[in-house]
Write a structure and sequence with these properties.
With about 210 residues, the chain is α/β, with parallel strands linked by helices. The chain is built from 9 helices and 5 strands; from the N terminus they run H-H-H-H-E-H-E-H-E-H-E-H-E-H. It has a 5-stranded parallel β-sheet with strand order 2-1-3-4-5, sandwiched between helices. It binds cobalamin. Cobalamin (B12) binds next to helix 3, helix 4, helix 5, strand 3 and strand 4.
Length: about 210
């Protein structure tokens, strides 16, 4: 298993989409825990690509190619995560990546896990305008708005979602959770969010714990 996870990571670092898809399929065939394969294999790979890019060892096209390989692996693995979808719905969540930000791999993983664990999820995709989060949440009667941000420059958009809710007097009715690599518990507290989660499993726990 350890060696397999290393190979998964390496396929992303190499930007090798066919290999990533093949390893993802092999993970399913071998019955490895899917979430562990994602977090300790593929996602570790994409974070390593980010680190190498930041250090100037990789160029932007290589970052893009790494992200493509990551997406290929996710395409193979996602149905296995969704397979356990619960019949009883625990609540409704509107999720998206905030405007100006196109990072959607982590957000999609959170959406998939919420949906597999009994939440009705409306995924608005990436680069979502502030008002659209709130419009959709009102329309679907959502319990939660989940806002992802991967850039320090787009994080303030998470606060604008909260401000927009307040301006429509929806602040206690619809909760807001924030996440994405640069976010933290402290940031969530600073902007008055109802919660922060550092990964998809923690996001499910947070939604469960606080949904009335
Ligand atoms: C892949 C990637 C890309 C891909 C995105 C592909 C895609 N479709 O998503 C591409 C190549 C397109 C890209 C582009 C850019 N990127 Co980029 N990218 C990354 C990288 C390497 C990995 C992100 C990722 O997918 N991680 C894997 C997933 C599984 O993890 P995650 O996103 O963190 O999500 C988990 C948790 O955070 C949490 N979570 C996520 N969302 C949410 C939401 C909620 C509500 C909750 C509760 C939890 C939660 O759960 C997830 C699952 O565990 C990061 C580096 C890093 N370490 O994050 C840089 C990074 C985010 N990128 C960066 C930059 C600068 C850019 C660009 C500006 C580069 C450029 N010059 O053009 C552009 C931005 C374009 C834009 N406007 O958005 C910087 C940001 C720096 C900063 N301080 O803001 C980073 C940190 C790289 C670096 N080390 O410098 N990028």
């Amino acid at each position: 298993m350890k060696e397999h996870l290393e190979q998964c990571m390496q396929a992303i670092v190499d930007g090798d989409s066919p290999k990533a898809a093949e390893l993802a399929k092999a993970s399913l065939d071998k019955g490895y825990p899917v979430l562990e394969v994602i977090e300790k294999g593929f996602a570790r790979g994409i974070r390593e690509v980010g680190r190498l890019w930041e250090e100037g060892e990789l160029f932007l096209p290589e970052l893009v190619i790494g992200a493509e390989a990551m997406k290929k692996a996710m395409e193979v693995l996602r149905p296995a995560l969704e397979a356990g979808e619960a019949a009883e719905k625990l609540g409704r969540v509107v999720i998206g990546t905030i405007e100006g930000d196109i990072h959607d791999i982590g957000k999609t993983l959170v959406a998939t896990m919420l949906s597999a664990n009994g939440f009705e999820v409306t995924d608005l995709g990436a680069d979502v305008p502030v008002k659209r989060f709130v419009d959709e949440a009102e329309k679907t009667g959502a319990d939660w708005i989940a806002v992802s941000a991967l850039l320090t420059t787009t994080m303030p958009g998470q606060k604008r979602v909260i401000d927009e809710l307040a301006s429509r007097s929806l602040r206690g009715k619809i909760r807001v959770m924030v996440g994405g690599a640069p976010c933290s518990k402290e940031w969530a507290a600073e902007i008055g969010a109802d919660g922060y989660a550092g990964d998809a499993v923690a996001a499910v726990a947070l939604a469960r714990q606080k949904t009335a």
